[in-house]
Amino acid sequence: MAIFVVDSNFFIQAHRFTYPLDVAKGFWGKIKKMADAGTIISIDKVKYELYNKNDHLEKWCKANLPKDFFKDTSKVISEYGRVSAWAISKNGHYLTKAINEFLDADEADAFLIAYCLADPKSRFIVTYETGAPQKTSKIKIPDCCDALNVKYMNTIEMFRELNETF
What's the rounded Cα separation, in Å, for the pair 143 and 92? Predict the structure, then answer.
């Protein structure tokens, strides 16, 4: 069974720009249903990014996501090592600041990739990020995923993959 591991921007961009909580109730109902079924999950680092704002989105997540929605990334440390090694190997391209930010223990991106790298046949990242391999100031999720053969997609691609509508 495919598991879709969502980035913090999956929630943030939806809430702020395309599917506001007060307008797109069908979208948020679908997200709750998918979370309850275990079709979508996320990781502890994303939880920290979402739960530090004290806003409507944080309140919605606390009220609607299952208690086990955010998975523990301490179990994917060896995979995180592979992600780190890739990032460090790119020090001739990326600025030191970009590598340090990507590998910061409080940042979710590298851990999302590591979590999916632990089971690449059934875990897929869902993010609004797009690749920018020529950029030197920030490592983007798709660029690392491409290098490590981790699958990723955006929200609409996920819905299409699942034949879901709302």
Answer: 15
